[in-house]
């Protein structure tokens, strides 16, 4: 380990030790190890987006600033703000659904399908609770068309239902299937698979993840993720778009899963630039395994590039 990394690891005593295995896995993948480690050790400011189904941006911002909020608008998403000075969770604007408190990276999957959503008739959010992306998808659909928000965990559907009501979402039905059992009666224009994952991209929000981090954990998720991406893809109409995302940095839960889909189905990845936001092309190989070259059109988000959590997102088109 380089001297500067060790120094950076020793600075803040309350922050858990970054496991050697974690660094062995990720240091070779990043452009700047010191920046990467430094960002992991820097807590993430809260962020929110103004909900256009309930509120107008400038008026909402004015109100929050009167409560003492110090807000920084995101260049890449004018509805989104980084918030310091107050906890946006505890504001009346949040209770009333004028804003939705959400990590910035979590806003990317709906954004990369923004164009499709403006004209989509039928959309599936396959792993939906608590509804951060569902409420954003519904807003991008302008509450039109039909959105199915699926969540197998009944307890978690309660928070989903609450968030839909709070945010004034009217075009959405909740279903309670394991996605693998979801009926194949209809074909969707857009499917979101925001997969359950090891969440090791969220260290800045939940540093304790590091205390129990094991690289083997990704393998357990990978098996489910491959089944979920396959089922999500099967539910698409020809020409439809699947958005796959995780808040994990692990290639096992990201590139490996996407590569599996490309090898087995008529699927094409589309690179989805987000102006003013730095996306990194996904890996073309990992631990001796070479992926299909198109896999690099998927996007990695490293925490030190945009001052966010780590994330992975890709838009995949089904052949006609
Ligand atoms: C990363 S969370 C989704 C977060 C959500 N999309 C949001 O933005 O608020 C993953 C979700 O997948 C659900 N899940 C787990 N296994 C599933 C399965 N077999 N089919 C569908 N969803 C599943 C989990 O219960 C969890 O709510």
Care to describe what's here?
The protein is α/β, with parallel strands linked by helices. The chain folds into two domains: 59 residues, Sun protein, domain 3 (Alpha-Beta Plaits); 216 residues, Vaccinia Virus protein VP39 (Rossmann fold), CATH 3.40.50.150. 32% of the residues lie in helices and 23% in strands. The protein contains twelve helices and 15 strands. Strands 5, 6, 7, 8, 9, 10, 11, 14 and 15 form a nine-stranded mixed sheet that branches. Strands 2-3-1-4 form a four-stranded antiparallel sheet. Helix 1 packs parallel to helix 3 and helix 10 packs parallel to helix 11. The longest helix has 18 residues. The N terminus is likely disordered. The site of S-adenosylmethionine has 18 residues, from helix 8.
- Care to count the β-strands? 15
CATH level-1 class of the largest domain: Alpha Beta
CATH topology of the largest domain: Rossmann fold
Average pLDDT confidence is: 95
What is the H/E order? HHHEHEEHEHHEHEHEEHEHEEEEEHE
Question: Roughly what percent helix?
Answer: 25-40%
Largest beta-sheet details = 9 strands, mixed
Category by helix and strand content: alpha/beta
Sequence stretches where pLDDT stays below 50 over 5 or more residues: 1-12
Oligomer: single chain
User: If you compute it from the alpha carbons, what radius of gyration comes out, rounded to the nearest whole angstrom?
Assistant: 19 Å
SS summary, helix count: 12
Shape assignment: globular
Report the β-strand fraction as a percent range.
15-25%
């Amino acid at each position: 380990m380089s001297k500067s990394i060790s120094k950076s690891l020793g600075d803040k005593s309350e922050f858990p030790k970054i496991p050697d295995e974690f660094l062995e896995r990720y240091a070779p993948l990043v452009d700047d190890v010191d920046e990467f480690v430094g960002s992991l050790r820097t807590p993430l400011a809260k962020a929110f987006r103004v909900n256009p189904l309930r509120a107008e941006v400038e008026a909402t911002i004015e109100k929050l600033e009167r409560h003492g909020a110090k807000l920084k608008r995101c260049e890449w998403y004018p509805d989104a703000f980084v918030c310091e000075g107050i906890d946006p969770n505890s504001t009346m604007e949040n209770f009333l659904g004028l804003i939705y408190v959400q990590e910035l990276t979590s806003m990317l999957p709906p954004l990369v399908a923004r164009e499709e959503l403006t004209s989509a008739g039928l959309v599936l959010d396959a792993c939906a609770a608590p509804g951060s992306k569902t409420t954003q998808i519904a807003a991008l659909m302008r509450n039109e068309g039909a959105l199915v928000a699926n969540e197998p965990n009944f307890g978690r559907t309660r928070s989903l239902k609450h968030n839909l009501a709070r945010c004034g979402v009217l075009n959405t039905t909740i279903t309670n299937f394991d996605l693998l059992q979801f009926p194949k009666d209809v074909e969707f224009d857009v499917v979101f698979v925001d997969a359950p994952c090891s969440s090791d991209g969220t260290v800045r929000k939940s540093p304790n993840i590091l205390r129990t981090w094991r690289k083997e954990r990704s393998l357990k998720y990978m098996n489910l993720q491959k089944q979920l991406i396959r089922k999500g893809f099967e539910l698409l109409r020809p020409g439809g778009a699947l958005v796959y995302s995780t808040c994990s940095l692990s290639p096992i839960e990201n590139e490996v899963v996407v590569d599996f889909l490309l090898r087995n189905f008529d699927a094409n990845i589309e690179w989805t630039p987000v102006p003013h936001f730095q996306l990194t092309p996904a890996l073309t190989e990992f631990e001796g395994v070479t992926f299909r070259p198109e896999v690099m059109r998927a996007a990695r988000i490293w925490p030190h590039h945009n001052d966010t959590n780590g994330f992975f997102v890709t838009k995949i088109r089904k052949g006609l």
